[in-house]
Structure formats: C-alpha cells, structure tokens
From TrEMBL:
Residues 119-138 are annotated as: Disordered. This is Lipoprotein. The lineage of its organism: Bacteria, Bacillati, Actinomycetota, Actinomycetes, Mycobacteriales. Keywords: Signal. Transmembrane segments: none annotated. Residues 1-17 form the signal peptide. It comes from Nocardia iowensis.
Length: 401
C-alpha cells in the first residue's frame, strides 16, 4: 500500500542498539498477563485514551464519501483478472468529479446538487513504469459512484452526464444493453474504450472501461459485467439520509482516536490524513486487490482509520487481527526486508525498504502491532521514529479499551 504522505515525523529520542531508550513514560496500568505500557518508550507521542471533536463542520459530506468506500465494488469482484489496484478516492465535489467525466460536465453536478462520491480503478496489469494510464493491451475499469439528493436528481444527472459526454466528439456513438436498458452507453468506433452512466436510487454509476481491442459488443459485455457487480454491492450499502448527513460524527466508534499521531490538535476530516473508511478501502488502495480482499474477508475487517501516515484496522477477533497483520506484512513483497522490532512491544514486527523499493513512493520503515481485535500499522522514514511510534501505537490501543 503506497504512502499517503511524504512527511516523516521527527523523533524526539534516539534508539540505540536496536532498543528504544530515552524520553518518556506512558500513563496506564497493566492488566494481568500484559506488559505494563507505562514502561514503553514512546517519545512525545500521546498515548492516553482520547476522543476527538465529533462535529464535522462543513465536511459532513466528506464523511459520507468515506462511508461510500463500501458502496463501490472492488474491481477484482467485477472480474478476477482485474486484481491490480489503480487507486481510489473520495469525490469531494463537482470540480473533483470532473476527473471521471467530461471536463464540461460541471454544470450537471452543480444543477443536480452532487453531494459526494467515491471512485476506484483497477486493471489486469500494472500501469507501465512512470505512467498513470493503463498499457494499451490492458483491461481497466474505473468506477465512480456519485451521490445526489434523491432518485429524481440522480436520474436527471445520469441522462445529462451522458448528453454532455457524447457531445464532446461528433464521432461518439450510442450503444445499448438488453440487460440494462436504463444504462446510457457510448463509444467512439475504432477506440477500445467505452463510457456508461446509470442511475440507481440516489446514485449515478459512472464507468470508463478500456479493453485491448475496439469491439463494441465486447465493450458492452464489460459494461454489463461491471454494472452487475456494482449494483449488487450498492444494494448492500445503507446510505445516510440526506437530512442526516450533517449529523454524521467524525469518529463515532473511536477508531481514529486509536491511531498514534504526534499532534491531536486541530483535526478535521481529510481523506488522506484523518479519515475512517469501510473495509473495501483497503482493497481499493492495494496493489494486489485479490490478496487484500482475501485478507480483509478472512479477518472480518469492518473499519479502517487513517491518521497522518499510520492506520488502525478493526477485525473480527484477536486471532483474526494476528492473521491480518501477518498477511499485510507478507503483501509488501520483495521490496521490504525484516527489521528487528522493539523487543518490549508485544508481537511487534517491522520491515525496512530495500533497493527494490522506491523511497519516493514508500516509507523506509513499516511496523505492525496487534492488540486484541485491532491491527496498527505505522510508518516513517526514520528508524528511531518508527520504533517510538510502534511502541506508542501498542500503548494507545491498550489504553483505549
């Protein structure tokens, strides 16, 4: 999983001889059979039980967009060949939505009052090195889900988005689906891509699909396959009623408060550095969607909280958390080598980026720790810092129960 930020927090203490020494204790008391977390060396990381301000201000819609990570189907569940994740994002507003439709579509989103959205993309092979587009011989599906105030607005938006999109080029032609007659589909003959819009409830599904060859029947079949999977996923999702979105809480189950951060002050929802997502977000963001889908389902993950460059995932139980941590470590592959973890942090395991990795995209150090049903993953470009951070993560998880 790629790094969310290039900022590495400076450590305030020095680790020596592979052990943490130096800077401060931790409040809390030990339970029978557990380490006394007050003795862990956590630097200046706060590890006391905490609760963030729950009021989202003007970012309530962003919280609903985070929830929608579970409304979008992972591409590997559209077709098993689409197991290479190409990333995902919350759609924060009309300007951001233009990344997934014709650039002249803003008036549609404004007039139909787009609330939020979530988009994910996957392919059957990685993008070429240094590129952000799929290779010409790849199959790739980008699936954006847009939320509108009600079903009527969504229906109008789907039709208008299609009208705007198809008018971009005189060469565009409409296609149709017998399975989904309400879907708007178009392509440009000779070009191996297809676009589609379909309203469902208060949502609009927007698809952009690339195939190796410009075959209209084949492209429509992929639209149908994608819609089948997406509609099934969407029907399992419980959308927040429009008049309740402003009441959404920033951290309703206290999961963000379990992620170790250097500074807790001034926190507001941010999709990269202060967010709670559904389990599917871990799959959408993974390079290997198939492996992460298996991990998430096996462990019964239901939430992931991201704060700065670390995260906590909540699993079914203690055994599931341990399996997930091990699986996440193994998923990093050959670009990471094992690194001795702090010996006084129970079960902690660490990795160090080697010459096969890309330090511009990945952190040099990653550590994993479990506590009951929780898995904490911390990262840093500095070894002393990551050692303090993994100790702090364990202590925080213990103090938060």
């Amino acid at each position: 999983m790629f790094r969310a930020s290039r900022i590495a927090l400076a450590a305030s203490c020095i680790a020596m001889a592979g052990l943490l020494t130096g800077c401060g204790g931790v409040r809390g008391t030990a339970t029978a059979g557990e380490v006394d977390v007050r003795q862990l060396e956590v630097g200046t990381y706060p590890v006391d039980r905490h609760q963030y301000d729950q009021y989202p201000g003007d970012k309530a819609a962003l919280l609903e967009g985070m929830r929608m990570s579970d409304a979008v189907v992972p591409t590997v569940q559209i077709d098993p060949s689409l197991d290479v994740g190409r990333g995902s994002t919350v759609v924060a507003g009309a300007e951001h939505a233009l990344d997934f439709v014709a650039k002249v579509s803003k008036s549609v989103f404004d007039n139909r009052k787009l609330i939020t959205g979530y988009a994910a993309s996957g392919a059957d092979k990685p993008d070429p090195p240094g590129q952000t587009n799929p290779a010409p011989d790849a199959t790739a599906v980008t699936n954006a889900l847009f939320r509108f105030p009600d079903q009527a607005a969504a229906k109008l938006a789907a039709r208008e988005l299609e009208d705007v999109d198809i008018a971009v080029s005189a060469e565009n032609q409409k296609l149709s689906s017998t399975k989904y007659p309400d879907a708007y589909i178009h392509w440009r003959p000779g070009v191996p891509t297809v676009g589609a819009f379909m309203a469902h409830k208060e949502f609009v599904i927007s698809l952009f699909i690339q195939r190796p060859n410009p075959d209209s029947a084949d492209l429509v079949s992929w639209v149908e396959k994608s819609l089948a999977a997406q509609l099934a996923q969407l029907d399992k999702f419980q959308a927040t009623p429009q008049d309740k979105i402003e009441d959404l809480k920033v951290d309703p189950e206290g999961l963000l408060a379990r992620v170790a951060v250097a500074d807790r002050k001034g926190r507001t929802p941010d999709t990269a550095t202060f967010a709670v997502f559904g389990a599917n977000h871990m799959v959408h963001r993974a390079e290997d969607e198939a492996a992460h889908l298996r991990l998430v389902q096996d462990a019964g993950v239901d939430r992931q909280a991201i704060a700065d460059d670390s995260y906590v995932a909540r699993t079914r139980d203690t055994a599931a958390a341990q399996r997930l941590a091990q699986g996440l470590m193994e998923s990093e592959g050959a670009r990471y080598d094992p690194l001795d973890a702090p010996r006084d942090v129970p079960g902690a395991k660490c990795l160090q980026l080697n010459s096969k990795g890309d330090p511009e995209r990945e952190y040099r150090f990653r550590c994993y720790v479990t506590y009951k049903r929780y898995v904490g993953v911390v990262t840093s470009d500095k070894e002393p810092d990551v050692r303090q951070k993994v100790a702090a993560e364990y202590a925080l998880l213990a103090n938060s129960l």
